[in-house]
C-alpha cells in the first residue's frame, strides 16, 4: 500500500493533519496507534476547546474530528508502527502485523503517555484499582474511596470528574500549592468529597487482587502513614511517545521530537505535531494547530518534489 501522507497517531494533532491533508486531495492514511483519539479521548470534559460553549466530552470531540477527516477521504488503520526506514524514498513503514506501507511524507503525532509513579505495587495492580483514565474507569469506583496523585490541571479535572462516582477522594501532592488553573482549584477546594494531603508522595500501593491501601510519605518530616483506599489515579504529567524515533529523528533531552517553527523534523518529508513535540502548551487546540501546519507543510513539500521531478524530466528529455 502507498500513501502520499501517512499520519502516525490519531489525537487532535493527527486528526487535524488528516483533515487538512484530505482536503488537499492527498488521501492521507492515519495509523491510529495504541490510543485511538489520543489523550483527549481519555479526558472527561473539554471546556477550553473553542466553539463549544458548554464544553464537550473528550471521546465525542475525537470522534467528531475523525468523522470530519473521513468525510474528505482520510483512511484509517488500527495498527501500530514498529519500524520506519527513512533511508529510502518513498519511506517504508512497517506495522505490527508485518505489513509495509510506503509514504512520500510522514506526519508524526504519536503524542505522550501518562507518567507512572514508579512505586511498588503500581504495575501489579494496574487495572485492579490503579488507573490512568478516570473517564474510562471512574464508573467502577461508585461509592468508593480513591487517591489522585498530582497538582496539575489533569489531576484536578479528573478528580472533579471522579467525584460523580466516589464517596471520598484524596489528592496527594508533593508540594503545598497547586499548579492547576485557579478555576479548577476553586472547584476542588469547594467540593466536599475532596481533601488534600500536602507535601506528600505515594510510596507504595498495596493489595492482593485489588488496591487496598497506599503508603504515603510526608516529604518534609519523613513520616509515613497508610491510607485504606480502593483506587489510585496518578496524574503526574506525561512522557513523549518517541521510542520508535530514537536514532532517526532529533530528540531533545526530555525525548520530545525537535522541529522548526514549520513542524519540520531533521528529515525532509517527515513532520511532527502535537504532544510529541510540545512540552510547553500541551493543549488540544495547540496540537490541532500544529497538525494543521504539518499537513500544509507536507502539501507544499509534495508540490515542490513534483515540480522538481518535472523540471528534471524536462531537462533530460
Ligand atoms: P502537569 O501540568 O505537568 O502537572 C503534573 C503534576 O504532577 C504537577 O503538579 C507535578 O508537581 C506533579 N508531579 C510530576 N512528577 C511527579 C512525581 N514524580 N511524583 C509526584 N508528583 C509529580 O501535567 P498535567 O496535569 O497532566 O497537564 C499537562 C498539560 O495538559 C498542561 O499543560 C495542562 O495545562 C494541560 N491540561 C489542561 C486541562 C484544562 O485546561 N482543563 C486539563 C488537563 C490538562 P509540581 O507541581 O510540584 O511540579
From TrEMBL:
Keyword Disulfide bond (UniProt): yes
Family classification: Belongs to the class-II pyridine nucleotide-disulfide oxidoreductase family.
Domain FAD/NAD(P)-binding: 4-291
Enzyme class: oxidoreductase
GO molecular function: thioredoxin-disulfide reductase (NADPH) activity
Keywords on record: Disulfide bond, FAD, Flavoprotein, NADP, Oxidoreductase, Redox-active center
EC number: 1.8.1.9
Superkingdom, natural source: Bacteria
Name of the protein described by the UniProt record: Thioredoxin reductase
Cofactor binding annotation: Binds 1 FAD per subunit.
PANTHER family with a match to the protein in the record: THIOREDOXIN REDUCTASE 1-RELATED-RELATED
Primary gene name: trxB
Cofactor(s) needed for function: FAD
Reactions accelerated catalytically: [thioredoxin]-dithiol + NADP(+) = [thioredoxin]-disulfide + NADPH + H(+)
InterPro entries for this protein: FAD/NAD-bd_sf (IPR036188), FAD/NAD-binding_dom (IPR023753), Ferredoxin-NADP_redctase_2 (IPR050097), Pyr_nucl-diS_OxRdtase_2_AS (IPR008255), Thioredox_Rdtase (IPR005982)
Biological process, per Gene Ontology: removal of superoxide radicals
Keyword Flavoprotein: yes
Organism lineage string: Bacteria, Bacillati, Chloroflexota, Chloroflexia, Chloroflexales
GO cellular component: cytoplasm
Subunit structure: Homodimer.
